[in-house]
Recover the amino acids of this structure.
């Protein structure tokens, strides 16, 4: 399952609550380790409501170029431009809510650009609904209590998240309790909690996108 997240395609990630940092952690855990710059673009509402990433603490080995813009449309432009750049190893965009500019055509452009240039592209959605999208993988992420610390019972251990893959062109949807192993830098999907069909509320989305 970890290989699905590592695909060089467009992926949607929906935060369970607007301020939950689990979505960002999940995306960072999937960033490629090869050389190259990561572009990270936020619109104004994402920055205001969820805060700016604290760069010294996120543990990304590559340089990160942050772009703060006012409008969701500017985030999309920055992402598409970055996907054309050979020096970029991954692209992250954060967009708040359901702006009209983030329609199927916009996501299709990002998906085609990411696949043409072999660059993973992540779109973090907060306070948003899973409307029609060309994203190849669509996730919902929520925080879980951390794993036990191996040396200190009072300290937090590795991060844990509830991860739901609710639409994918390459894998069976399901829900997992996932642990991020800080030592190896890998995601452990072995704690499968539920493996079920896609929610009926997403069925129409899946059918339209398959056409």
């Amino acid at each position: 399952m970890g290989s699905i997240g590592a695909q060089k395609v467009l992926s949607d990630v929906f935060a369970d609550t607007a301020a939950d940092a689990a979505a960002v952690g999940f995306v960072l855990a999937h960033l490629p380790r090869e050389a190259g710059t990561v572009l990270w673009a936020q619109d104004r509402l994402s920055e205001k409501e969820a805060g700016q990433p604290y760069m010294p603490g996120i543990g990304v080995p590559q340089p990160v170029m942050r772009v703060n813009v006012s409008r969701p449309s500017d985030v999309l432009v920055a992402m598409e431009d970055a996907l054309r750049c050979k020096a970029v190893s991954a692209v992250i965009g954060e967009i708040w809510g359901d702006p009209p500019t983030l329609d199927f055509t916009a996501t299709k452009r990002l998906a085609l650009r990411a696949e043409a240039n072999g660059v993973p592209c992540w779109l973090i959605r907060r306070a948003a609904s899973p409307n029609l999208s060309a994203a190849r993988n669509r996730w919902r992420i929520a925080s879980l209590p951390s794993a036990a610390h191996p040396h200190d019972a009072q300290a937090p251990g590795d991060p844990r998240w509830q991860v739901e893959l609710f639409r994918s062109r390459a894998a069976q949807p399901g829900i997992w309790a996932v642990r991020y192993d800080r030592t190896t830098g890998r995601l452990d999907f072995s704690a499968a909690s539920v493996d079920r069909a896609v929610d009926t509320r997403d069925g129409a989305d899946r059918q339209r996108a398959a056409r």
Remarks:
- Residues 195-211 have pLDDT under 50 and may be disordered.
- The helical segments are 2-5, 22-29, 44-50, 72-83, 104-117, 203-210.
- The first strand starts at residue 10 and ends at 15.
- The chain has one domain: 2-210.
